[in-house]
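look at this one:
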Amino acid sequence: MIWDSIPIMVGFDLTIIGLLLVTVVITWRYGLFWGDDSVNLPGRWLILLGAVLAGLFYVADLAMMTLGTSLWGMEAAMRGMETLHLEIQWVVSALSIALICAGIVMIAIHRHQIAQHIADSEERISRARQSVFESETRFRSLVEQTPDSVYCFEFDPPVATDLSVGEQVSRSYDATLIECNQGFAQSLGYNSAASAIGTVFRDLDSAKDTAAHDALMAAFVDNGY
């Protein structure tokens, strides 16, 4: 009677083997077993090992049903099938499930650790941004309250430091005011710092004394800025 059910059993084995192959190919194709450092390597290889182990059992079962009789005779093939199904199948099944579950657990733990690390990093970044914001606020408050003139000119485009001293001094007249406090703005004749922003250095009264400015900038360059 068992031989009457062999076509069904063969079809079942082929289906299982096919599903395992398709699963491995798809997971390999989408990078589960290679090139993705975000997934725990031991965990994913345990999953692959469990799938391969289950696949080997069904290949052996299929070989026993299709080739066993011609290779070893009907009686030996029957004993082999009985051994496979009664003594080996449960061991293979339990081991395959254990390997796959262990792999899944390892990957889950690893991804949880990554998620926690990302959350911690985001929290540190948030604290750093808040610290920078508070520092900038305190600095701006200090700048606004000091009676001294505070200002910053910018070169746009930047001036290369390997240019000659004379060329760098000449370019300094094109620098643009990008930041200043109220005291400096008032010294230029503006009512507010915002209205002074964008002023070109050559338009300032201090730029009219070219000899003094050129000497100051040349000394600044010569002394390594």
The helical segments are 6-29, 41-72, 74-145, 165-171, 182-187, 193-196, 210-222. Strands lie at 151-154, 176-180. The mean pLDDT is 81. The two ends are 98 Å apart (CA to CA).
